Amino acid sequence: MEQNVFEEMAKRYDTEERKELAQIVVKEVKKELQDSQSKSLLDYGSGTGLVSLELADMVDSVMLIDSSEQMLEVARAKIAKGGITNAEVLHSDFTQGTSDVNADIILMSLVLLHIPDTRKILHEMFTILNEGGKLIIVDFDKNEEISHPKVHNGFVHEELKGLLSEVGFTSTEIKTFYYGKRVFMKQDASMFIASSTKVVNSENSGN
Q: Taking a C-beta distance cutoff of 8 angstroms, is the pair 185, 175 a contact?
């Protein structure tokens, strides 16, 4: 009985469209995770784990963090069913205050557009990342066709790069990698991937 409840919940969240989009994201993020077998990955705004659970075998550990307990219940069921031993979930919302978790790699996949204060959350991610760590952001390019009071209508590469730099990230690389039909609030849109590094303090680099 309980398994059926989880399956119904999963169907509600994991629509075919979301699954398809997640696979496109997974394929692109995998390129950023080469040689990360000893690294910890934190998926912020993980949802049901459509992206990060597909990446679990490329890293040492995965932590799925989301503000939706129901989505995390679905993720827990997937972890148990798949026998994934290096994944755990945490119910949290970093926009509400500082967390005491940390990680070598943070992934934000289609999450940034839902957070009103972009600079604040990027600063939070910078704090959580270990020295030398990497922040991977996947999101939509700026789209003037979209207007919603609670969602950014995408991001301009140079503006996002500037914010990341202000927060302290270096060597940010951003590129558009996908264009899809009706993928962003029923509008055609393109997705970008941004990779930024938290550089080790120069005074420590000689150690």
A: no
Q: How many structural domains comprise the chain? A: 1
116 in any annotated domain:
yes
203 in a domain, yes or no? Answer: no
Q: What is the pLDDT of residue 183?
A: 92
Quick one: pLDDT band at residue 2, thresholds 50, 70, 90?
low
CA angle 194, 195, 199 (to 5 degrees): 145
Domain assignment of residue 206, yes or no: no
Contact criterion met (CB below 8 Å) for 104 and 85:
no
Q: What is the pTM of this model?
A: 0.92
Task: Give the range of the structural domain holding residue 183, as residue numbers without chain letter.
Answer: 2-197
Percentage of residues of the chain with pLDDT beyond 90? 79
| Mean pLDDT, residues 191-205 taken together | 79
Q: How far apart are CA 81 and CA 25, in angstroms?
A: 23
Asked whether residue 55 is assigned to any structural domain, the reply reads yes
CATH number of the domain to which 163 belongs: 3.40.50.150
Give pLDDT, residue 149: 86
Q: Decide if 107 contacts 31 (C-beta within 8 A).
A: no
- Locate the DSSP E strands across 40-169: 40-44, 61-66, 87-91, 103-109, 129-140
